[in-house]
Amino acid sequence: xxxxxxxxxxxxxxxxxxxxxxxxxxxxxxxxxxxxxxxxxxxxxxxxxxxxxxxxxxxxxxxxxxxxxxxxxxxxxxxxxxxxxxxxxxxxxxxxxxxxxxxxxxxxxxxxxxxxxxxxxxxxxxxxxxxxxxxxxxxxxxxxxxxxxxxxxxxxxxxxxxxxxxxxxxxxxxxxxxxxxxxxxxxxxxxxxxxxxxxxxxxxxxxxxxxxxxxxxxx
Length: 219
Known about the structure:
By secondary structure, the chain is an alpha/beta fold.
């Protein structure tokens, strides 16, 4: 039996943090190795404890969750930590910034416990967590603000099918949903996704979504 996934929880609301810790620790495959109430402590503990996943609130004292995420998972970090951001709808612009800062995904604070647990396991496994509806509302709502101008798809380093896959990823579709949409096998879709990420120089699906919105590829 493999060792439990090690999780660090950072949230300044004690009741919320206690609830997250209780939910996570109740799972045999998950273990909370630390908890804290501000971003500076989150960065310190993450560097000391090396958790598999950090569950990070956005608005926290001393150091906000976005800055903490950038310090732990930003593009200049040699050994990035996997960060799952939890937020409210009224923090949607901040979530976009968190994704740019290197977060592997995000959830709403009112998500049911099974979604939180699924999110932690998904992020720990190296996949990005993107809920389609939340993606559209949180990122799409600010699309005109976060992209400088629409790009000519012909200028992108992608083959036509890879561009199709990028657009569907940006809409929040899973590999199986993309496969059904394009009438392809899931293995073929995985290959296209891998090629697309490599050509764009982005490390995961979250960064691909940011790229797509910044270049005006999604309405």
